[in-house]
Amino acid sequence: MDDAIAVRDLVVDRGGRRVLDGISCRVPRGAVTGLLGPSGSGKTTFMRAVVGVQLVSGGTVTVLGQPAGTPALRHRVGYLTQAPSVYADLTVRENARYFAALYGRGRVEADRAISDVGLAEAAGQLVGTLSGGQRSRASLACALVGEPELVILDEPTVGQDPVLRADLWARFHAMAAAGTTLLVSSHVMDEAARCDQLLLIRQGRLIADDSPAAIRAAAGVDDLDEAFLRLIRAGETAATSTDATAARETA
Amino acid sequence: MNPRILAATTGRILRQLRHDRRTIALLVVVPAVLLTLVYFMYADQPTPPGQPTTFDRIALVMLGIFPFVIMFLVTSIAMLRERTSGTLERLLTTPLGKLDLLFGYGIAFGLAAAVQAAVAAAVAYWIFDLETAGSIGLVLGIAVLDAVLGVALGLLCSAFARTEFQAVQFLPVVVVPQLLLCGLFVARDQMAGWLQALSDAFPLSYAIEALQEVGAHAEPTGRMWRDVAVVFGAVVLALVLAAATLRRRSG
């Protein structure tokens, strides 16, 4: 089966700075792929490129077999921005129903999306009166309400209560089991272990692209945080020794 | 454009307005209060024989100016909020078309303006005995068209504002010159040539002239229809330019 997302040599410059520097990777269908990396590493820019709202300087991004940003993909891709982007002066239910209508869905789907993110009791409340965590879940409901084939979630679990976080991850896996592809970003390493597949980016470069088990095995440690640290160090040493070799050869 | 999405968007904007009771109260009450002020300002002014009273002349023009100014302001702030809250970027990743959004604003605020104009006209005609040769229906129709002109210019101008402070500054830049030169203060044919040229370039001049035609003639005149067509053309032009400012991809 072909991949949900195929990225080749993606380069993005923002404000004169290279934010993504030649990323190539694939995201398999029907799985939860984690996009991990520290704040400012280019996660959001990568997701924007996949959704097709980011101007790119080079490379290709293919989503569900079509170039990213193709109009037909807007029906098939759901995007959750990092900052909750819902209408503060509407209730949770009104927000969900509006986004449902954009995807040709009705009230039933809207109510289901609200209860899936654990907001059923706050459905009649204005989004502006919700807590930060509730507000981002309202935004999440609006990203899921269209039942897209590919869901891009930018830090969906930040600020959520641990029980809710576990519920949301269970929900993501249930969606993946039903055939939905999820790309979920996080800067919390303990969430990496919950993913089927991991992409680690740092300073605009892809450092790892594998399953959590394979990454642990490659680094020779059980702790993913430690494994990433070793991969980063190994990458830096390799780069330095290549530079040194190159310098010796020129000399 | 998609009728279902357009209807959902119009409904969403009206729902946002409905949650803001104070804005609704201000929209409905303020024009009536201002008309009352104007009535008493000119109550003791003599009227030359055979001429409409000063109140009739000014009140008729004000019925067109209120919806234009107020809807310009309301729209530029509403659209700026869409941009700054991230909802605009999110909407542009959904199946929503740019024109669905722009026409949604035009229809929603046009309906709000129709209510506002009806209340203001009721006060002017029934309490203060405003007299026009032409029908009240035409006056209301032109008032709503003026509101839609305000919406269209507001949608366009919001693209050039980064903050609410800037958006509000577009009122003196875009609206006040049109008010000064529309023929309310000095008849258009008595102004210097270059001012007349400016006045000819401003759409509000045609909107006001159309109202004055209704005030002076029992039947709709050709000039009135031409003026209405010019205003309508300005609305379409502003909406097309506003659509061009909505970019799905950004840097």
**pLDDT under 50 segments of chain A (min length 5)?**
none
Q: Major beta sheet of chain A, specifics?
A: 6 strands, mixed
The major beta sheet of chain B can be summarized as: none
Order of helices and strands of chain B: HHHHHHHHHH
- SSE order of chain A: EEEHEEEHHHEHEEEHH
User: By helix and strand content of chain B, what is the structural category?
Assistant: mainly alpha
Count of the separate structural domains of chain B: 1
Oligomer: heterodimer
**Strand composition percent of chain A:** 15-25%
Output the CATH class name of the largest domain in chain A: Alpha Beta
Strand order of the largest sheet of chain A: 6-7-8-3-9-10
Overall 3D geometry of chain B? globular
Terminal CA distance of chain A:
50 Å
What is the average of the pLDDT values of chain B?
Answer: 92
Pfam families (chain B): ABC2_membrane (PF01061)
Protein name (chain B): Transport permease protein
Transmembrane segments (chain B): 24-43, 58-80, 101-128, 134-156, 168-187, 228-246
Family (chain B): Belongs to the ABC-2 integral membrane protein family.
Summed up:
The complex is a heterodimer of chains A (251) and B (251). Chain A is of the alpha/beta class. Chain A contains seven helices and ten strands.
What descriptive keywords fit this protein?
heterodimer, A: 251 residues, alpha/beta, Rossmann fold, four-stranded antiparallel sheet, globular, B: 251 residues, mainly alpha, 10 helices, ATP binding (chain A), ABC_transporter-like_CS (chain A)
